[in-house]
From TrEMBL:
GO terms for molecular function: deoxyribodipyrimidine photo-lyase activity; DNA binding; FAD binding. This is Deoxyribodipyrimidine photo-lyase. Residues 167-179 have a biased composition (Polar residues). GO terms for biological process: photoreactive repair; response to light stimulus. Its cofactor is FAD; (6R)-5,10-methylene-5,6,7,8-tetrahydrofolate.
Length: 485
């Protein structure tokens, strides 16, 4: 009688290196059935950019498995139903998987494991996504951290780096199991194909390339240059690879720390990079412990904010037609490439929430649909951070001035000129505020405001004053301490 296979259930761990579920499956010495199940019923459906990424990442994973004598089995539908079907088809009696920690997924995994156990099937889950599982990092009172700095200290003191692994050289997989055709899932955009500007290489190989490009060269000036959107190489661009589990966060941290040990970068640069990975971890732990923040404010009083319903302004923001060049450059970069520089993300979020007084959930939903690195926990936490309603958030009265932010972080105008080319002939002194340019300067640049480039959809000071007035209705404070940097 043939040896029963074990099922290796891939989710957001689309890699062969440093994959604990794969390693434990291989230790059984039995054939392995690698499977990915597209089940969008139990959690929030993926955005369009995420679907594009998943299509390419699954192809890369299948190619990597084929190099090791295996292949990726694709199934679509209810995950439990599909696992039970595979068990019936193959006689498998063990399932290995890396856990998901978002609340719906975590509960769903527990229900699946309970049902399979009742059917006589073992289900083994591991942590392949985070440095520490939620629940392993708690404060002295046994409660989740709500402030980042002490959380990071506790995280780094608690986390233990696993040994790096490459996975088995050969993976024996049953040849008769049927698989869906990935093309039939239609994850890649149909006509029109809006992904032509996506300059990414999804998959484990692409993640490794991104890490090698960034460390040590980009990491050398990371702390100094990371806030400047036109400085190429100053950002790791690892976020989508980390989200899809194409690289372990430990691999990224170890490379950064080793570069510091070797004297290739300073320890300050390495520590800053590790702290940014720590923010990803903080967000994941927060969402796990406080599931309601996916839909509501972490600080409940902020759910009483008198948000405006303004479809025209929301559309202008989405399309990069607000009349503020830095905001518009960011929104156009997002639509074209599926990604936006982190500093600019904060500016465009602040503009939507505070200048336009539009609910942060509208912005979160747009980012969810258009970002290739859309991550439920990070997306929610980052939007609530700007809105002042999240854990350890920036205060609501900190209102980014999109003009001075552009002047400070895009001083040569390279970023704006790339993404808002209709303004490329304006001199630097008025590039971030075209409406202040003298008539002859606009004429020489070939610009008629309102025709070639929009006039501001809200005046900065009016938007700021409206936001602070709204804050007073929520908290009774309305502290007038707007950040003017």
């Amino acid at each position: 009688m043939a040896t029963k296979p074990v099922i290796l259930w891939f989710r957001r761990d689309l890699r062969l290196h440093d994959n604990p579920a794969l390693n434990h499956a291989a230790e059984t010495g039995r054939p392995i059935l690698p499977v990915y199940i597209l089940d969008e019923h139990f959690e929030r459906p993926m955005g369009a950019a995420s679907r594009w990424w998943l299509d390419k990442s699954l192809r890369a994973l299948d190619a990597a498995l084929q190099d090791r004598g295996s292949r990726l089995i694709l199934r679509k539908g209810n995950a439990l139903t599909q696992l039970q079907a595979l068990i019936a088809e193959t006689g498998a009696d063990v399932v290995f998987m890396n856990r998901l920690f978002e609340p719906e997924a975590f509960e769903h995994d527990a229900e699946i494991a309970h049902t399979l156990k009742a059917d006589g099937v073992e289900c083994h889950g591991f942590n392949g996504a985070l440095l520490c599982r939620p629940g392993d990092v708690l404060n002295g009172s046994g409660q989740p951290y709500k402030v980042f700095t002490p959380f990071l200290r506790a995280l780094l003191a608690t986390a233990e780096a696993p040994a790096h692994t490459t996975g088995p050289r050969q993976i024996q997989t049953p040849k008769t199991v049927q698989s869906d055709d990935l093309d039939g899932w239609k994850l890649h955009p149909q006509r029109p194909d809006w992904s032509n500007g996506f300059d990414w290489t999804p998959g484990e190989g692409g993640a490794s390339q991104a890490l090698s490009r960034f460390i040590p060269s980009g990491l050398k000036t990371y702390a100094k240059d990371r806030d400047f959107p036109d400085r190429q190489g100053a950002n790791s661009r690892l976020s989508p690879h980390l989200h899809w589990g194409e690289i372990s966060p430990w691999r990224a941290i170890d490379r950064a720390q080793q570069a510091a040990k070797d004297g290739k970068v300073s320890s300050a640069e390495s520590d800053k990079f590790v702290a940014e990975i720590g923010w990803r971890e903080f967000s994941a732990h927060l969402l796990h412990h406080f599931p309601y923040i996916a839909e509501r404010a972490f600080r409940p009083e902020y759910d009483a904010m008198p948000w405006r319903k303004d479809d025209a302004s929301l559309k202008a923001w989405r399309q990069g037609r607000t009349g503020y060049p830095l905001v518009d450059a960011g929104m156009r970069q997002l639509w074209t490439t599926g990604w936006m520089h982190n500093r600019v993300r904060m500016v465009v979020a602040s503009f939507l929430i505070k200048h336009l007084l539009i609910d942060w959930r509208e912005g979160e939903a747009w980012f969810w649909d258009t970002l290739v690195d859309a991550d439920r926990a990070s997306n929610v936490q980052n939007w609530q951070w700007v809105a002042g309603s999240g854990a350890d958030a920036s205060p609501f009265f900190r209102i980014f001035n999109p003009i001075t932010q552009g002047e400070k972080f895009d001083p040569d105008g390279g970023y704006v000129r790339r993404w808002v080319p209709e303004l490329r002939r304006l001199p630097d002194r008025c590039l971030q505020s075209p409406w202040t340019a003298p008539a002859e300067v606009l004429r020489d640049a070939g610009i008629v405001l309102g025709r070639d480039y929009p006039k501001p959809i809200v005046e900065h000071e009016k938007g700021r004053a409206r936001a602070l007035a709204a804050l007073k209705t929520v908290s009774g404070r309305g502290d007038d301490h707007s950040d003017r940097d």
